[in-house]
Amino acid sequence: MGEEKSPKRVLISVGSKSSYLSEAWDQPEEIIKTSLRILLDKEALSPSPADVLYAAKERWGPRTHIVFDIFNHDYDPAVAHIEGRNDRPVITIFFTRGTDVVVSDAGMPVANAVNKGVRDTHDPRD
């Protein structure tokens, strides 16, 4: 992937057999820090804490999901609920068994679902 400063959205998905499960729910900022180190190692991306925008935390079945943006300095919560205004490419980080981690670019179905979830969180009608 290489070092890019273009805005990206990161989906962290922590499975029930991951060593990071309780940390993901109780201390999401710590799993975000861990994820930033992983992005540096695996994707050659090096966002600083100032480049991170925490978006959401939810449990979907046995998994904990955390979403945050990197390099999204033009983020505007007033229009974040409007389709197409804040959609970003999505990188997934799956914490599976123990300390195993899988990083990849999300396919369109996952990216669309993550972007819609972020839009829904900002929708003033909800």
TrEMBL record:
Organism: Plectosphaerella cucumerina
Name recorded for this polypeptide: Uncharacterized protein
